[in-house]
Structures are given as structure tokens and as C-alpha cells.
């Protein structure tokens, strides 16, 4: 999972475009040491590394050109797309992320989110239904299970789902799956994300 990228799908051709906000990263982690490094990086530039350059500034996204949006998730969502990593349910959301979510929602186009990114929907659309897995740390597989209570405190309904499943909020056209919020083998996470993408395409 990446430093904050999004894909948008055109169902007729399944064409995807990737966007990221042009902002500085909250921090840069040296993953060899597992600690923050003393350097600065830009989210769009770092995301371009993963997208092999084929990426655009989120500020330039035109919702009318797309049928759906998917937020891949990752810690970058909680650090850069919003401030959940620091502020929990009191977080602020990047203005372009907020306006993108609201624009797809008001155009009745589906929104797919996985991993920690369902908190974006919980913050922007009070009353919506999302899953980040289980609301209890069942068998030690859901170490961040308290995220489910924070979602409920935002006035949303947390739906408990296993890692291989996704939840569809039909009224809001929001599809969520827990992905790496669950300590599960990669192939189970892959299956769960697959169900989310399939449901998004069905709604598009
Ligand atoms: C959110 O804000 C409330 C009210 O200011 C505060 O009591 C609470 O501790 C904050 N929660 C987090 C996770 O920062
Ligand atoms: C999202 O944008 C709307 C409209 O500008 C604003 O009212 C709302 O507070 C924003 N939500 C968040 C979580 O920043």
C-alpha cells in the first residue's frame, strides 16, 4: 500500500487514472530502521514513484470524467490525506480529498475504500456504513479495533466483516474492506480488496 494514491475507473474500458495531493508528507520513515528520517518529501512526487510517473495532481481531477473512485489506503491516508494518525476522530481532511469524496457522492458515483481509508468516509459522510474489520481484537488479528468505536462516535455505523469480505453501503454507494487493518496473510487481503473492487464496478 502506498503513500496516498487513488485510482479512478471508467467501467466501459476499465481505464484507470491515478491522483495524489501535491503536499509535503507529514514525515518520512526509514523502513530499514523503522523510525522517522530527517528529510522532507512531497506526496505527489513519492506517489509518482509508485505510479511510474503516470499520475496527476488531485487538485486537477474532474469528477465528470470518471465513473468511480477507489482509495487504496495505507498509513499515508492517516498521515497525509487526513490527520487521523494524530487526531483520531477529531482529524482534519485535506481539502481536495474532501471535495473529491463529496463530488463523487453527490454525483451518485461509487466510492471504494480499504485499510484505514474508510475513516475518510466516516468523517465526510456522517451516518454512512463502513467496515475496518472487527470492533474487537479477535485472536490478536485486529490490533486497531478501537478504530471501529471512533467511527461509531462520528455517527456512522461500523459493520464487522472479515478480511476476505467487504461491506456495501447501498444508499451511499460506499464500499469498504479492512485490508491491512487485519493481521492476515497477503492472499486473504488480496481477496478482500478484490471483492471491494468488484462491488465498486457493479455500482458504477
Ligand atoms: C477529540 O476532541 C475532544 C474534545 O475536544 C477531546 O476530548 C478528545 O480527547 C479528542 N480526541 C482525540 C482522539 O484527540
Ligand atoms: C468538507 O468540506 C465541507 C464543505 O466545504 C465542509 O463543510 C466540511 O467541514 C469538510 N469536512 C471536513 C471533515 O473537513
TrEMBL record:
Q: What is this protein called?
A: DJ-1/PfpI domain-containing protein
Q: Which InterPro entries match?
A: Class_I_gatase-like (IPR029062)
Query: This protein's superkingdom?
Result: Eukaryota
Amino acid at each position: 500500500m502506498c503513500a496516498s494514491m487513488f485510482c479512478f475507473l471508467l467501467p466501459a474500458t476499465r481505464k484507470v487514472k491515478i491522483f495524489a495531493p501535491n503536499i509535503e508528507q507529514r514525515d518520512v520513515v526509514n523502513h530499514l530502521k523503522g523510525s522517522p528520517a530527517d528529510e522532507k518529501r512531497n506526496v505527489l512526487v513519492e506517489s509518482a514513484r509508485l505510479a511510474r510517473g503516470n499520475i496527476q495532481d488531485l487538485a486537477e481531477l474532474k469528477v465528470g470524467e470518471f465513473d468511480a473512485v477507489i482509495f487504496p489506503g495505507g498509513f499515508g491516508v492517516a498521515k497525509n490525506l487526513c490527520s487521523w494518525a494524530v487526531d483520531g476522530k477529531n482529524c482534519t481532511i485535506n481539502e481536495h480529498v474532501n471535495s473529491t469524496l463529496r463530488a463523487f457522492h453527490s454525483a451518485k458515483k461509487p466510492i471504494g475504500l480499504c485499510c484505514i481509508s474508510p475513516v475518510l468516509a466516516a468523517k465526510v459522510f456522517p451516518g454512512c456504513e463502513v467496515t475496518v474489520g472487527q470492533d474487537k481484537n479477535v485472536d490478536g488479528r485486529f490490533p486497531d479495533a478501537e478504530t471501529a468505536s471512533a467511527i461509531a462516535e462520528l455517527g456512522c455505523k461500523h459493520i464487522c466483516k472479515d478480511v476476505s469480505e467487504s461491506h456495501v453501503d447501498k444508499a451511499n454507494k460506499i464500499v469498504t474492506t479492512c485490508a491491512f487493518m487485519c493481521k492476515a496473510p497477503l492472499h486473504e487481503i488480496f481477496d478482500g480488496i478484490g471483492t471491494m473492487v468488484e462491488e465498486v464496478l457493479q455500482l458504477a
